[in-house]
Amino acid sequence: MLTFRLFRLIFKCLLICGFGLPLIAMAERSPNIVLILADDLGFSDLGSYGSEIATPNLDGLAYGGLRFSSYHTAASCAPTRAMLVTGYDSHLVGVPNIPEAIPGSQIREPNYQGVLSTDFETIAEMLERRSYRNYFAGKWHLGMDEARLPFARGFHRSVSMADTGSDNWEQKPYLPIYSAANWFEDGKRIRLPEEYYSSSYIVDKTIQYLDEGPKDNPFFAFVSFLAVHIPVQAPAEYRDRYKGMYHDGWEALAEQRSKGLRKVNILDREHPINLPPTAASWADLNANDKNYFRKAMQVYAGMVESMDFEIGRLIDYLDRVGQLDNTVFLFLSDNGAEGSIAVDPTAPLIPRLLLSAWLKTNGYHNDIEKIGERGSFVNIGPSWAGASVGPLSWFKFHSSEGGMRVPLVISGSVEGKPLVREPGRVSREFVWATDIVPTILEIAGSKEFQNLSGKSLMPILNDSSNNIRNSDEVVGYELGGNKALFMGPYKLVYNRTDDQLDRWMLFNLVEDPSEQYDLSEEQPDLLSRMRAEYGSWEKEHGVLAVPEGYNQGQQVMLNGMKNRPILWIVPLVIIMLVLAAAFLLVRLSFLRRN
C-alpha cells in the first residue's frame, strides 16, 4: 500500500512538472457524446434550417455550433442506421435496404439480410475501449435477435424499438405486417408504461441510464426518436400551436421554406419550389380535404416541436448535474421527409379501404376532430413532404436530394470550451453518413477512425473552409434500385420513378441543389465517366439488381403476407364474399326478369 501511494505521489509530481501534460490533456479531453437521431425529418423542418416550426433547443445547439448544408444519408432508415453505428457503407454491413422490403431474389445473399452483420464493430464497441459507458434509447431497426440488439453490440443499457416504427401513444404496431410492437430493454422484451408518449419516454430512459450509471466514465448516448415517422401523433399542447398556420397549402409552405433556408444561410440563394409530380394542387382540393391536410401538418409540426422540447429536457438535465460543459451533441435525421400515400384522401381507393379496415380492427381511427391524439392514424403525404424538404427534389426512398439531404448539427463543449471554432457557421462541404462514426471517434480521442471508410469532420469543425474530400473522390449509393454517385460538386442520379426509368441524370449540386437542371446532355463526357465510376463502386460493394417491376411499398406488403398469411387470407375472403354477393344479386335480378 505504501509503495502504491509513493508511486502515485511521484506520478503526480511528474504531471505537475509537465512531463505528463499530454496524459492530463487526454484524460480531461474525453467528452460525453450525445448522438440524436430524428426519423423522417425534412431538410427545412428546424427553425435554424428555415422552418416556421418552433425548435428553440435545437436552434440553440445549431447557432452555438456548426450547421451543415450538404449532409447526406441513405433515403431509408435501416441503411442509414447501419452506417451511423459502423462507419461503413450499408451494403458491406448487411443492411442495403430495410429487411421488410428486400425481395426474395436478394435475401438469399449474406450481405442482403437486412440486419446488422456481427462481422463489424459498432461505435459503442469502439468507444468501450476508451472507457465510455454507452446507452441507447429509441428506434434501432438493425435486428432483434440476441446477437444484434444494442445490448449485445456494446451498449451497456438500452431500450429499443426493433421495427420500422410503432404507435407513439401505445404499444401497438402501426402496419399490418407486424403482429406486435417489438420493444426490448437490455435484450429482453418489455411492456411499455400506460402513460407513454414516444419522445418523452425515450428521453426519460436516457436520463434514467445516465443517472444510474457510473459518474467517473465519459458516456455515449444514442437518442433515437420515433418522431416524425408515421403515424404522425403529438400532444395537444404542441399541435394546437399551429392552428391556422397551414391555411394556404403546400405550395405556399414550399416557397416560404425556400426563403427561410436562404434567410438562415443554409442555401446561398432562393430556389424555385420543386414539389414532386405526385403532389396534388391545393387549389383543386375541396374544403373537407383541405381541412384534413391542414390538421395533419399541424400535428406534424407539433411532433417536431415536442421532440425539441424533450431534447431541451436532456440538455437541462446535463446542465443540472454539471456535465453540460463537457458534452458534445450531434443531431441529424435518418432520411428525408416521408411522402407515402397511406390513408389520406388522395390515396387510391382500394388500398386505402383495406388499410383503413385493418386500422379500425387495431384500434385506430381517422377522425378529423381527434387527429394526432391517442388512437389517431395520420400521415402528411407526398405534398406536405415535398414542402418539408424546401426546394429539394422528391422525398424519402428516392435518391434525389429531398430523400438524402437532411439537417446535421454538431455542437457542444469540451472542458468548457466550444468544440466548434467560430460557432454559428454553416459548412457547405459534402458530408456522408459514414463520416459520423470517424467524427465521434476523433472527438473521443481515438485514432481508430483512420481505418474506416468515412472521414472525420474535425477539420471542418476547426475551420469551415477545410475540405475532407478532393474533387475526384467518389461516394456511391444504392437502395432498392435507386442510385446515386457524388463527385465534387456533381451528382449522378437514377430514380426508379415512372418518368425516369432507365434514365441517368446529372446535376451540379452547388449551383442546383434542387436538381432542376439536368446536365447529362450538356456534359456527356462527365456523365460517362461518373457512370463508369458508379459501375466500379457497385461491384466493390456487392450491389444486386432489383427484380423487374420492383416497388418498395408493394414488396413490404408482399413480405408481410408471407410472414403473416392472415394479411391476404382475410382480404381474399372478403373479396370472395363480395364477388359471391354480386353474383347472387345479378342472378336474382336475372330470375326476376324471366
The total tally of domains equals: 4
Largest sheet descriptor: 11 strands, mixed
Q: Could you name the CATH class of the largest domain?
A: Alpha Beta
Approximate shape: globular
Q: How many beta strands in the DSSP annotation?
A: 17
Mean pLDDT: 89
Short description:
The chain is 36% helix and 13% strand. It has 594 residues and is an alpha/beta fold. Strands 1, 2, 4, 5, 6, 7, 8, 9, 10, 11 and 12 form an eleven-stranded mixed sheet that branches.
Descriptive notes:
The protein has 594 residues and is α/β, with parallel strands linked by helices. It has 4 domains: 30 residues; 432 residues, Alkaline Phosphatase, subunit A; 67 residues, Arylsulfatase, C-terminal domain (2-Layer Sandwich), CATH 3.30.1120.10; 30 residues. Helices cover 36% and strands 13% of the residues. It is built from 18 helices and 17 strands. Strands 1, 2, 4, 5, 6, 7, 8, 9, 10, 11 and 12 form an 11-stranded mixed sheet that branches. A hairpin with a 2-residue loop joins strand 10 and strand 11. Helix 7 packs parallel to helix 10 and helix 9 runs parallel beside helix 12. It is globular, with a radius of gyration of 25 Å. The N terminus is likely disordered.
Outline the fold blueprint:
Layout: H1 2-17, H2 21-28, E1 32-38, H3 56-63, E2 66-68, E3 71-72, H4 77-86, H5 104-107, H6 123-128, E4 133-139, E5 157-161, E6 183-185, E7 188-189, H7 198-212, E8 219-224, H8 236-239, H9 250-263, H10 287-320, E9 327-333, H11 349-361, H12 381-388, H13 401-404, E10 408-414, E11 417-418, E12 425-427, E13 431-432, H14 436-443, H15 458-462, E14 474-479, E15 482-487, E16 490-494, E17 505-508, H16 524-540, H17 552-563, H18 566-593
Helix pairs in contact: 7-10, 9-12
